[in-house]
Automatic annotation (TrEMBL), chains A, B:
It is found in: Mitochondrion. Its EC number is 1.17.1.9. This is Formate dehydrogenase, mitochondrial. Homodimer. Belongs to the D-isomer specific 2-hydroxyacid dehydrogenase family. FDH subfamily. GO terms for cellular component: chloroplast; mitochondrion. Residues 72-367 form the D-isomer specific 2-hydroxyacid dehydrogenase catalytic domain. The lineage of its organism: Eukaryota, Viridiplantae, Streptophyta, Embryophyta, Tracheophyta. It comes from Sesamum angolense.
């Protein structure tokens, strides 16, 4: 199979080049398991007759990431099920004694506080893919667990999918295809609302990894590209991508012919596209949302698609998932929806299966994971799960033994941050006042007691608009940080 | 409507910048009509209820390119119909006295030799769009007619559409969408054969304007891009686009995960993808064909889609068109077909409506058209309609009055060729032996008697592999051409 071979070989190249552990992060961590037999449970969707149709279809229960032979040959137990809900499900039986739980966002096993409490042996929660919404991260952190995903494994997949959906909507593909299968031929009924993408204004709400990959792929289409994010890109990257930063979301949205949603679901973004916001969009706007269904007000989207205010809506995310048979988005006009699949292409599956295997291998050896994969590390969370918008202490940061004071610790933090993607992403721009709404900072020193390591200390760099009233530090000047730290310490 | 406004403004910019006549081509031609009332007939598809849904929907019979008011205000008669077939159709009634016939490839009025014979006043055949397959070009040339189209008006539209179709097939969009509308949710049934485009080998058969625009848009997807054409691109352009030239089509095809057809329908390409050629493609290959349906053997495509040898086939061209209700491509598995619409987006319609208006305006004033628009000019054909692969004499070429010898004429030709796109496209590469199959040349001097101008002389630069056995001239050395001309003269 042409596509099968091409996908597999691309992933082999990726794994061999990028996923090996740099020696600097190989320091042993108490949290990780010593070698020994582990009980690993994987929860995946059943593929039934499709499981055998493609040897690279690794993400289903039958093929179980392709790691059974490897795990069992090392003496580990590997239970795989798709039965994940309710008190009598197969998963529930294994909760009390599993060490590792592997799940996917496509068929999520909800890891509630209650399940975490019952899981006395649980150490590691792995997402085969991206997105750990289904895990109670606070409970996981409090229990000292590690939660990790295969960061980056789906970004290309989703960005490509978004561009496909933009074109499907702009060019009015589906009515033409439906004519074909219905035995019809009526060019007018398609052409009266089919457009070129060229020359249109496309705005992405969020320009993280997926949003940037989308913008890069949009560039040769000669569109007017806009992006809104909390952060302006590096000017060089911005100019390479050819997109214009829009600080004010509500100033950007009414300019857009096409809006793409590329932001996470948070309390702030939930229901963000409600009746009022949609009313302010251009009449005839097209919306692509592969982020999360709940960012949209479901009924407001139905109403605007029915009135024609939204001329097309496409995405693979729903609220809830799986979408029930009577979900109104299935039946609204001008929708180009699919089930939640954009991140689970065969190529994506090969990447996240390889990423999960890599993390299990490191876990067995007591080695660190690639730093970007951690959501909660040994009970310490990144991505704001514990408080506001905290960013994690970088994985290369010192431990107690090398830091005898807050000041020394902070010096280490600053030095470590320089190599950490969040440094660029947050500090340089935030502190240079490019985001004026974040005018003040606070540094939080956390003492996070851990079930296994009593003295484990994590340092977070966070911010709030209320707790710090001093001048905004200059990111180029490390002493500003030390001064700040002194005042706070 | 967001898209409507954006499309219209982009086209206004295009027309005002690019379509005005350079003063050098404004020389009056005897063939063009003197000022006076003309009878112009336009044949377009009827849009019925869709006609009024978008003021920019110019390509339908009801909106008739938006030029009625303008034509009638100048005293011309403008008949518009969609009734074009059979001896008693509306078009047939106007054949005897029309001066200009405007047609589209989307609802083609067949201009046969018989109709041309009956059309005693006919001077000009305009295609609103691209493609003049529906005109008997030999008969038109013999009758001294001019046939012109709006070259370039659809190239972006078709290239975008091709990329959409590639993504739809690679990512297995349609089965997911059909699940949505059927109330289903089965990620496995989609994911087992959904891939990323990244890393796949995409080959275009033909890399003319559309093929190049496609390759440019594919570049950020990080594919392995191949192209086959009679001509290798300029090395700089090739490196910008990032595609590799494949001289031997049958060597390229088996390498491709995705094949895109971007070549014209000729006697040579008709049925080119037959059972034997398809059998040599990779199992699981995806094919996109927005060129012409007859390039494929219809049944061979059905069989290969049914067996899975072709894993997906998408395009908007059929043989015949409109596709009858029982056309097997409507019902074969893994097709993502539409009616023939890719070149008739609203943006495309605005461009070709503006292009037709521009040519009519020039016709009324007796001015030349933009040179690239001519298919047959005053009875002289380009694009090989009259003989082999002849290329036209450039529009800026001298007429009899300025050329008193073949040698002087050729010097003028060579100088004119330097500014003509075909020079780059054919001469530089052909003669530099990059296409070894074109090892020899001949220059043909035509005397083309014309109904209106008895002494009209056209010069063609053509080639054949048999009539010239001398050394291949160096394109950088004009004297090589003069020597060649001398020998032939």
């Amino acid at each position: 199979m042409a596509m099968k071979r091409a996908a597999a070989s691309a992933v082999r190249a990726l794994i061999s080049s990028g996923n090996s552990a740099p020696s600097s992060v190989l320091a042993s961590r108490g949290l990780h398991a010593a070698a020994g037999s582990k009980k690993i449970v994987g929860v995946f969707y059943k593929a039934n007759e499709y499981a055998s149709m493609n040897p690279n279809f690794l993400g289903c229960a039958e093929n179980a990431l392709g790691i059974r032979e490897w795990l069992e040959s090392q003496g580990h137990q590997y239970i795989v099920t798709s039965d994940k809900d309710g008190p009598h499900c197969e998963l529930e039986k294994h909760i009390p004694d599993l060490h590792v739980l592997i799940t996917t966002p496509f068929h999520p096993a909800y890891v509630t506080a209650e399940r975490i409490k019952k899981a006395k042996n649980l150490q590691l929660l792995l997402t085969a893919g991206i997105g750990s919404d289904h895990v109670d991260l606070k409970a996981a952190a409090e229990a000292g667990l590690t939660v990790a995903e295969v960061t980056g494994s789906n970004v290309v997949s989703v960005a490509e999918d978004e561009l496909m959906r933009i074109l499907i909507l702009v060019r009015n593909f589906l009515p033409g295809h439906h004519q074909v299968i219905n035995g019809e031929w009526n060019v007018a009924a398609i052409a009266y609302r089919a457009y070129d993408l060229e020359g249109k204004t496309v705005g992405t709400v969020g320009a993280g990894r997926i949003g940037r990959l989308l913008l890069q792929r949009l560039k040769p289409f000669n569109c007017n590209l806009l992006y809104h994010d909390r952060l302006k890109m590096d000017p060089q990257l911005e100019s390479e991508i050819g997109a214009k930063f829009e600080e004010d979301l509500d100033a950007m949205l009414p300019k857009c012919d096409v809006i793409v949603i590329n932001m996470p679901l948070t309390e702030k973004t939930k229901g963000m596209f409600d009746k009022e916001r949609i009313a302010k969009l251009k009449k005839g706007v097209l919306i692509v949302n592969n982020a999360r269904g709940a960012i949209m007000d479901t009924q407001a989207v139905v109403d605007a698609c029915s009135s024609g205010h939204i001329a097309g809506y496409s995405g693979d995310v729903w609220n809830p998932q799986p979408a029930p048979k009577d979900h109104p988005w299935r039946y609204m006009p001008n929708q180009a929806m699919t089930p939640h699949v954009s991140g689970t292409t065969i190529d994506g599956q090969l990447r996240y299966a390889a990423g999960v295997k890599d993390m299990l291998e490191r876990y067995f050896k007591g080695e660190d994971f690639p730093p970007q994969n951690y959501i909660v590390k040994d009970g310490s969370s990144r991505r704001g799960a514990l408080e506001g918008h905290m960013v994690p202490f970088p994985q290369t940061a010192p431990n107690d033994a090398t830091c005898d004071s807050i000041g020394a610790l902070l010096r280490e933090v600053l030095s470590a941050l320089a190599s950490y993607e969040f440094y660029d992403f947050v500090l340089k721009r935030r502190l240079a006042k490019e985001m004026r709404s974040w005018a003040s900072l606070k540094l939080l020193i956390y003492n996070q007691p851990d079930r296994r390591s009593t003295a484990q200390q994590s340092v977070y760099l966070g911010w709030s608009s209320s707790n710090w009233a001093g001048p905004v530090p200059d990111p180029a000047n490390q002493s500003d940080f030390l001064n700040l730290a002194t005042e706070l310490s």
